[in-house]
Amino acid sequence: MLSNIQINENRLWDSLNEMALIGATKKGGVNRQTLTDLDKESRDLFVKWCKEESLFVTVDQIGNIFARREGKNNNLPPIMSGSHLDTQPTGGRYDGALGVLSALEVIRTLNENNYLTEAPIEIAMWTNEEGCRFPPSMTGSAVFSGQYNLNDALSIQDPNGLELGNELKRIQYNGSTPCAPRSIGAFIETHIEQGPILEIEDKNIGIVTGAQAQKWYEINILGMEAHAGPTPMSNRKDALVAASEIVLLVNSIGNDFQPGGCATCGVLEIGSPSRNVIPGKCFLTIDFRHPENKILNEMDKKLRNTIKLIEKNNKVEIKIKQILELKSNVFNKSIKNIIQDVTKKLNYSSKEIVSGAGHDAVNINAIAPTAMIFIPCIDGISHNEVENVYKEDVTKGAQVLLHSMIELADNSSIIIDN
């Protein structure tokens, strides 16, 4: 039987809207890239809200923020929830922020109801989830979970040559708390689906069973600059032509490995572009995804083998650097069952779903029992300024999170089977 505790719908909605003002764009979205002045402003606001709830706030060496509410038995590992506050350059209001502020609303609700859980509860705000400024993505949770070296992460450079570690210092979020795995009772991340399935099937809650595998690549192509007029076509070493063939190759690989395959070139840069110069250098990025590790490896093999042919045919040099690999994830069955049970008791409709996107929960799943809650987003649109949600869906997601966390925090004897 669920308690009668209810989250405050208007308070959560107002907090989301207030956070969205930081980095607001003309089209209604948010440009709040990691470790910018705007990111600092959003962090400061979040910390302020946490301190207003008498939470103990710490910042670790990669800038992850943790806000802890003590329980009756503080020797128990905390039940944790959270996400991120950084966005894409043309990001939306809810990607990431929903998970952080839903977790904050859980604590606000517990506080105003004087409800003390058995185990402590923590909010996590992870650094550089998006990875658009400092690739790869999900850096903070990767370092925290022991899957990425701290010093390597601190030395990542943005396109302007600025280092992640120096930018952390500049915005004063280079914390002293060690960034390393520690005991966590359970981790739940609430997020918008970022796809259309829940909306199409008219479901309130997505119970996430896992996340698909990913590989990210950076491709550097070296040809030769030459005059566009006097240079015969047969003599050219055109880096852009080779890059164009790779873009088409990537798209064809995505189509060839259906169902489930996704393949994207998100960045294409020409070195020193000029309209009457044959491009001599190009840089592009590739993002491969598939629910099955084996098939993702087949996509990788086709990419590498065909790029060799593109390199030979265009008389250029192509270097491939893989910068990210995430294996497909299966989330914790026990937590998933709790979320499902809570959803039913609240009379919400639900659907089990695999995440097509990467999330910090994927990294935390390596060190702690982990699960995710999805809510629908309008037209399935995300990583776009028009990203939007319905207020009632936000409320339902937070309500499921609240009672799932209470169940986990009050029943430390629940067997968590990974």
Question: How is this structure best described in words?
Answer:
There is one protein chain. The protein is α+β, with helices and mostly antiparallel strands and 418 residues long. Helix content is 34%, strand content 21%. Strands 1, 2, 3, 4, 5, 6, 14, 15 and 16 form a 9-stranded mixed sheet that branches. Strands 7, 9, 10, 12 and 13 form a 5-stranded antiparallel sheet that branches. It has a two-stranded antiparallel sheet with strand order 8-11. Helix 3 (97-112) links the parallel strand 3 (79-83) and strand 4 (121-125). The longest helix is centred in the last third of the chain and has 22 residues, at 293-314.
SS-based structural class? alpha+beta
Looking at this structure, what is the CATH superfamily of the largest domain? Answer: Zn peptidases
CATH architecture of the largest domain: 3-Layer(aba) Sandwich
What do we call the CATH topology of the largest domain? Aminopeptidase
Q: Helicity range of the residues?
A: 25-40%
Low-confidence stretches: none
Short recap of the structure:
With 418 residues, this protein is α+β, with helices and mostly antiparallel strands. The chain has helices at residues 9-20, 37-52, 97-112, 139-144, 150-154, 164-170, 197-200, 239-256, 293-314, 333-345, 360-364, 391-410, and strands spanning 56-59, 65-69, 79-83, 121-125, 186-192, 205-211, 213-222, 226-227, 262-264, 268-270, 277-278, 281-290, 317-326, 329-330, 350-355, 370-375. The strands form three sheets. Strands 1, 2, 3, 4, 5, 6, 14, 15 and 16 form a nine-stranded mixed sheet that branches. Strands 7, 9, 10, 12 and 13 form a five-stranded antiparallel sheet that branches. A two-stranded antiparallel sheet has the order 8-11.
